[in-house]
Amino acid sequence: MSMLNVENIDVYYGNIHALKNASFHVDEGEIVALIGANGAGKSTMLKTISGMMHPRNGSITFLGEDITHTDSYKLPAKGMAHVPEGRRIFLQMTVMENLEMGAYIHKKLPQENLERVFQQFPRLEERRTQVAGTLSGGEQQMLAMGRALMSDPELLMLDEPSMGLAPILVDQIFEIIKNLNKAGTTILLVEQNAQMALSVADRAYVIETGKISLSGTGEELAK
Length: 223
Description:
Elements lengths: L3 E10 L2 E11 L4 E5 L6 H8 L7 E6 L2 E2 L8 H4 L1 E4 L11 H8 L8 H10 L1 H5 L10 H13 L5 E5 L7 H16 L3 E6 L2 H7 L2 E6 L2 E7 H5 L1
Parallel strand pairs: 3-8, 3-9, 6-7, 7-8
Antiparallel strand pairs: 1-2, 1-4, 4-5, 9-10
């Protein structure tokens, strides 16, 4: 059984038909990439899966449970975390306070999750008392990912993690994505940098104007 199943969803912004009869799945342990041009519907797909938008038709199941109309704030407790486009960290708060916010579903701060985050992102441990708004772009992306990992998700959804980063940092972020996956986190990756996304993805889907037009292994689509 797939970890995530999206079946025949239609999503609208008012009268604009943003996703059209779209279906795909993510199996446990995979990195699955959604690639496509700007405005194709990639971010809308993630927002719909994570409950920020709801489809007019179709269904979404996660770990065997129908989450089509589940509110977004309930999904981290079910094992899903979403790192939105543009990072959306709390700029006035410290690194440590941002990470604590990521663990809000736990009654007390899970130390093992924190240690795991610091292991993946040593820079965050060095900067734990620093105000998040003073971090570099790459460090802010690491913090957004670290905050999501504090809930110990089964599925981590990343929206444009390489956006606005220097090439050397892009390589670093994708190396971290591979390491997180090796450590057991299933990843759904939305990315405009198709070449980088396909280099790490087990499978990928191409979205064009709200429809899924192609699918295959990362290697097949790269060719």
